[in-house]
Give the backbone structure.
Amino acid sequence: MTRAPGKHRRPLVATGSLVFEALGVRSLSVLAVSALVSMAIAGCRDDADSLASPGEKPNVLLITLDTTRADFLGCYGRPTARTPNLDRLAREGTRFAQCSTCTSLTAPSHASILTGQYPFVHGVRTNGSHRLASGCTTLAEVLRTEGYRTHAILAASVLNDQFGLNQGFDEYDNVPIQAANKAVIAQRRGDEISEHAIAFLGNQQGEPFLLWLHYYDPHHPYLSPRSNATTIERYEDEITFMDDQIGRVLTELRRRAIDNRTLIVVVGDHGEGLGDHGESGHGYFAYESTLHVPCIFWYPSLVAANHVVDMRVRTIDLAPTVLALIQAPGLPDAQGENLGAMLQRKTQQDVPAAYAEAFEAYYHFGLSPIRTLSTNEWKFVLAPRRELFRISQDPAEKGNVLSEHADVAAGLYEQMRSLIADAPDPPSTDESEHRPGMLDRAALESLGYVGAAETGTAEAHLREIDRLEPQGNDPRDFTETLESYIQARHATGEQDDDLAVELLEKVVGALPTSVRPRADFAHACQRKGQHEEARKQYEEALRLDPDSHYTRQMYAGLFMESKQWALAEEQFRILIASDPTDGESWYNMGIALASLHRPDEAREHLKQAASVDPRDPRPWNALGVLCVQGGQYDEAVGHFQHALRIDPKHDKSRRDLERALKLVEQSKGP
């Protein structure tokens, strides 16, 4: 958990360790808890004394639903849905029937929700490789200046504070990244999010608050208490579990009699393909299965009850709407609009067309970006193969009608061009680019994301309008290949290296000039112990792109694993020269130098690693080991203790500290 500098706040319950529930315990939640919490907000009062007092600042509860399709909630028409709490919020508040997100990736989408800006303005285009620049202004920053206590509780490390979304939050409850055997755990279940939220509510003393809760449960891999459940059933069970946990928070709000002083906003960050258009996950395409998200507002004195807005709105409209409802200053350079008139039944106001983008295939495979612009009736797709869907009559996007309505497509293209040309300038790449360390990268990959992208291309420094036109092959022509890549990543996460190698070999065959899958193929071979083949594939990837930092890191790691320290040193020198902020390479260089019996040089590199990333306990642990080897036991104790102050759960430092303390005692003699 991080706190804003200079802020004194009451202590909160500390972040607990992440524990995945056993399915046997979980089954009670999915099958029984719905019945227990279905009345959580049943008694929402509509009498006059239930309204917030005039002039009183309402609390704001922002709930973001990761990977949640709108059409899988009961209030959006799914007959088999078990979502009583979200459904009741929708009945007693206002539901936006057509809400569009601007991207189907977690970090960029949340950056847009918090800033009211599209990704090409705030600069966060993908997970892991970008951070929200300090020059951007968030909803939390505005509310904090208005006297709000601002608190966030995250469920996936892709939103941790190093990615910049913590701006304006007094407390930012990060997800601890933990290693369990060969696996990395970088997410928290919804019950833990709700427990932390209930603890936060228990510490309130009357000041208004912004509480952001992020639920990640419907993201792959889907868990279910049902044996032999289908993929769809497992996904449904995850949504039911999430709804149960949200119900616990709503119950606590009512128990503390602050429900009717709390503006509740529920929104999805993106959906899930689930096989629609050949996409099982999300990120590569821009169909409605991943862009249409739930959006619900609830607050008795400001939001109309039992109201449905049919006009298409955007997730970038949420922050401007919240600030307008509570009469707070607006966000600078926000592209979203205030939807307050719709929430109060005053008008079905005309909202600008909704922009969306899919850049994942561009960043990782060199395929073309996809951009879309949608109105209530139409959806235009800008890609190497342009498309137009009459979305009002064809919500499943089955029929491309561009040839019949070329004038409509041309008009929407010009709107898209104007939107991008007239937008505020984005942050510089130096401000928005982020290179995660190995642990962060492993955490991203454990969440099902590809990990860090190679964003330092010449195109990344062009103005957005100058790279509007499609570049490269159409990702939709590689649907099966991209799906094989997704399945290979799942296989890697499940330690099935044989399947990963088989699938990645096919991907490399289909995309022979694409660097990322070739590097991943090399790494899969490395995991199987096929070091010669791995080296061959790494070297081919580096021939294709000598500046690929990711590939060179993995190539150097191969030499580390095979204890070829001099070759590893050579690669780490190249990495550090290209990016002096790469703490991982400073650290690994220190290990290589120590293994080459050059302890003084090793210490300097380890100290630099600690300076570059003060949150990493490993450099301090390695410095302690060097001190033990040199007989400097007291100094070693200090280094191990420092590592444990950074991460009290760093088991290696704890074990090494115990040994060092024994050596200190032994050195004193009888």
